[in-house]
Structure formats: C-alpha cells, structure tokens
C-alpha cells in the first residue's frame, strides 16, 4: 500500500523546497496552534505539526471505517441509556479508579433525581489502525472510541489543501486532485445546531466548556465559526466560570451570567487533572440541568476503556443492539482482542500470558489524552507488580496492533527536516442527535488521519507525538 511518491522521498532539494511551501501553506490555510510558551494568547502562533506528504490508506478499509460509524453512534447512544450495563460493567473499575468512580457517582445522582435533559447530542471519534496480518493484508482494527472532547475536526479540514499544494510542487498534480475534501467541523456544528434548535429557545446560547490552557483554540474556533455563520451565539467558559456564575432555575434551565444555555459542548473534563472540588461541583450542576450536554456523563462513561473491553465479550453487542444484526457484525469486525483483568481465573490467565509475552499486548488504564498506556518491558514490570492486587482491575489488556510502517517527514516548528518511519491512525467523526427516544440525526461527519514515528508507542497530536495528515487512498 505504498504511496506513489517513494521516488521523491530521498530527493533532498525537492523535499526542502516542498517543506517550506508546506509550512507557509499551513499557516495560510489555518492549520494553527498556539505556542507552548504562550498557550493562552494568539499574538504568537505557529503551525500545528503535520506530515509533509499524505499517507497511503487502503480505500477498502477507509470505506469500512465510514460504513461502521453510524453503527457506533447507535451503540454509544444505547450504552448511555443502559443503566444496568454501565453499572455492571464499571462495578469492578470504580472500586479502584477514583476518577471513573466520581463520574459514575454523578451519573447515578443525576438518574436518581430524574433526567431534565430530553435532547441528546453525541459527537465521537472512532480511531483505527491498519493491522498487518501474517500474509501482509491490512485489517481495520479499532483503537478506541472517544466520546468526549474528540478534537482536530477543525484543523484536519485544512490539511488536504496543504497536501494538495505540496504534491503539485513535487510534480504530482494528478495525485493532488485525488485528495478527498473533508470538513468534520461543519458536521459537528450541524449536530450542535440541531440540538440547539430542538432545545427550542432561540435566545439561548451554545457554551464551549474549555480548558484553562487553550493551545488548540483554532481547532475549536472552526466549529464555533460554523455556528456563528448560522446565527447561533457561542460563549467560551471554563469550569471555574460555571462554578462562580452558573445557576439552574426551578425548571432546571441552565444560566451563565443570566444567559440561558441550550448546549454545553465539552472540550474539557476528560482527565483527572481537569478537576478540583469546585470543578466537580460545576460538572454536577451542568449534568443536573436540562441543557443538552455533549456528551452527557453517561455517554462519557460509555467511552471508557473498560466498556470497550466488555463490548468484545460474545453476546454483549447483541444484547445492546437487539434487532441490529448487521450493525453488530460490522462493529465486531473492527474489534481487536480485548481482555478483562478483573479478579478471578480469566484475569489471572491473561495476566500470566501478557507477562510471558508482553510485546503481544498493550496495557491500558481508564485514561484519555495519550501517553498513559504501557508496552513491552514496562507493561511486564507493572503487571507483575499488580497481578495479585485488585489494582489490576483499573486496567484492561488489548492485543497490540502492528501496522506496516511507511516513510514520511514530520513537520514541527523548530525541528530538523528528517525522514521517519511512520504509522498512521484513522479517526472517523460521528454525530447524532436524539430527542426522547427518537434518533433525529445519525451521521459520519468526516475523518482525521494522524501519523507518528514508530519509536513512539503512544500519544496523540496534543501530546506532541502524532501529527496531522491527509489520507491518500490506494
Ligand atoms: P488515549 O485515550 O490516551 O488516546 P488510546 O487507546 O487511543 O488512548 O491509545 C493511545 C495511543 O496508543 C494510540 O493513539 C495508539 O498510537 C497507541 N495504541 C493504543 N492501543 C494500541 C494497540 N492496541 N496497538 C497498538 N498501538 C496502540
Ligand atoms: Mg486515543
């Protein structure tokens, strides 16, 4: 599945010229990030890291990933409404993982009080790698599904234009014309706009809940601008602001500074460091309100690694999606081997297998955002230490996906231009809106390709490991 530019990869002058065109094109097209030194000001910005060249993606697997996205939307939504499934699945995890436990407590508290929210908006991103089988045939395998703060839908809509220009500079106009248009931020905004409309209060605003440190603001602005273009007001607030100025009235309408909020779009709140006591209180206030949370806390829990692992058990998908046999088949085809480390014989056995052969597996805690998983020798050491402790149930084990590497250049500010052996991860954005029991929107909204050098086992773009890319279908 090689891309048709192997011939230019080692042509240093051509690559250097293309790289300088690429960087300026990225700046012109808005592939931007704030700098590490000034993460909360836009006076100085730089380009978000990206590959010099698009990466080859097998078209059949690309189509497969798109074709299963609506199924995943249905699945996530079904899990979020299934109190018993979440309770049962997360029972062992919440005994040892404080963060998941706290989310779960809010989930239960909100259910006990009775849900005020009647319109539901899901924005997720299902991520895959192309596992290279023994015969060399690549297969689409899901890495995870992100049900909260799935990012880069904005910046990724701008990389195709950059890569198109690079290919032209390198004399590959025909290939440039084959790059697919892609605009997830528009799809995300259409979902938010639909939820806003169904909420039914034309003067209410959409609130982006954002982090204290906002390096990736331009990615969010892409979605914001799509909403402003539809005459929907957007405000940006942090948990701290909600704690200080948020309130819920008797009808459980949410207000910020006296302004009614129709939709809360979280780009924050997915890792423990996002929370202190006040932020947890703010989160509870938001969840109790009738505003459309994207996601509500149940949908966030549906995206945990523990849930992902339980989904792979025989019969689970069938129970969650009765009457959707074909969707179940499509979903299951993307699953890699996933294993529970719950206390008991099953967990003992797989822990022993992984200790004996750590390179076959990835050890994953219930964390998001990259850089948390364990591999190889480190996996073995940690698992050996916790194998007889209940602590092991805060992790899951997963088969390691082994994609075929390809050569590319990763462009990063202040970094030398050098060729790297790389692997890619394809994400598909899903958007859905449910009103009461009725799905009123269920879409695949675009894609994201991220590429990293093979020496990094883990980590995304925000974590400084992967870079933005554009798929070139082969
Ligand atoms: P996070 O929630 O931190 O993003 P992921 O499950 O997506 O967690 O893992 C982070 C990164 O680790 C992925 O982007 C991928 O590069 C790598 N990774 C995760 N699972 C696997 C796997 N099963 N095989 C190979 N690499 C993996
Ligand atoms: Mg991930």
Protein topology:
Layout: H1 12-29, E1 32-34, E2 45-47, E3 50-51, E4 55-57, H2 59-67, H3 69-80, H4 83-96, H5 98-113, E5 119-132, E6 138-146, H6 159-169, H7 173-177, H8 184-199, E7 205-209, H9 217-229, E8 234-237, H10 239-245, E9 246-248, E10 254-256, E11 259-266, H11 277-288, E12 292-294, H12 297-302, H13 305-311, H14 316-320, H15 325-332, E13 338-340, H16 345-356, E14 361-365, H17 376-386, E15 395-399, E16 406-411, E17 419-435, E18 438-453, E19 467-469, E20 471-473
Parallel strand pairs: 4-20, 7-8, 7-11, 11-12
Antiparallel strand pairs: 1-2, 3-16, 5-6, 5-17, 9-10, 10-11, 13-15, 14-15, 16-17, 17-18, 18-19
The structure holds adenosine-5'-diphosphate (ADP) and magnesium ion.
Magnesium ion is lined by residues 127, 143-144, 460.
What would your notes on this structure say?
It is a single chain. A hairpin with a 2-residue loop joins strand 10 (254-256) and strand 11. Helix 4 (83-96) runs antiparallel to helix 5 (98-113). It contains 17 helices and 20 strands. The strands form five sheets. Strands 3, 5, 6, 16, 17, 18 and 19 form a seven-stranded antiparallel β-sheet that branches. Strands 7, 8, 9, 10, 11 and 12 form a six-stranded mixed β-sheet that branches. The protein has a three-stranded antiparallel β-sheet with strand order 13-15-14, sandwiched between helices. It folds into two domains: 5-336 and 401-473, no CATH class; 337-400, Dna Ligase, domain 1, CATH 3.30.1490. It has helices spanning 12-29, 59-67, 69-80, 83-96, 98-113, 159-169, 173-177, 184-199, 217-229, 239-245, 277-288, 297-302, 305-311, 316-320, 325-332, 345-356, 376-386; strands spanning 32-34, 45-47, 50-51, 55-57, 119-132, 138-146, 205-209, 234-237, 246-248, 254-256, 259-266, 292-294, 338-340, 361-365, 395-399, 406-411, 419-435, 438-453, 467-469, 471-473. The model has no long low-confidence stretch (mean pLDDT 96). The protein has 474 residues and is α+β, with helices and mostly antiparallel strands. Bound molecules: adenosine-5'-diphosphate and magnesium ion. Magnesium ion binds next to strand 6. The site of adenosine-5'-diphosphate has 18 residues, from strand 6 and strand 14. This is Glutathione synthetase. It holds the Pfam family GSH_synth_ATP.
